Amino acid sequence: MPRHSERKYRAVTAVQRHLNRVMRRLPTHTLLETTGRTSGLPRRTPIGGRRVGDSFWLVSEFGERSQYVRNIKANPRVRVRIRGRWHDGTAHLLPDDDAVARLRSLPRMNSAAVRVVGAELLTVRVDLEE
Q1: Whole-prediction pTM
Q2: DSSP assignment, residue 35?
Q3: Terminal-residue alpha carbon distance, the chain
């Protein structure tokens, strides 16, 4: 990864670490819960995205470098909290999907933030169980 991208990654993740502590506590904020690949403990990450039918779509701003994506690769079973309600599901990483086009279909504020801070966009689809 080029030096500029590495610095950007470190700066954004440092800010996100602090911001995520607050965002996880908001009862209506969307969360993705993965299983820690080393610890086996639940890991909750505030995310933006959109539910479309029985799927939830999101775009990771740092692709496979994102910790939640690394956890998904180790165990694709996840939970997503949407409007305060938890849904079990299976996550799929979609590197062949056009992540920029996908962002256009997601909520504007989230999409803008991902485009600004993102370096290696990766689409993630979670197939939800009801």
Answers
A1: 0.78
A2: E
A3: 40
| Locus of tokens 């009801």 | 130
What stretches of the chain adopt beta strand conformation (E)?
Answer: 31-35, 42-46, 50-52, 55-60, 77-82, 85-94, 122-128
Cβ neighbours of residue 87 under 8 Å, at least 6 residues apart? 56, 79, 80, 81, 128, 129, 130
Write down the residue that tokens 């993630």 correspond to: 124
- Average the pLDDT over 46-74 and give the result: 93
Quick check: helix, strand or coil at residue 49?
coil
Helix (H/G/I), strand (E/B), else coil: 37: coil
Burial 67-84 (b: 16+ CB within 10 A, else e): bbbebbeeebebbbbbee
Q: What is the mean pLDDT of the chain?
A: 82
Q: How far is CA 67 from CA 30, 53, 105, in A?
A: 17, 26, 24
Q: Give the model confidence (pLDDT) of 72-122 as tens digits.
A: 999 999 999 999 999 999 999 999 999 989 988 888 766 555 656 556 889
Cβ atoms < 10 Å from Cβ of 111:
20
pLDDT of 22 above 60: no
84's tokens: 């305060």
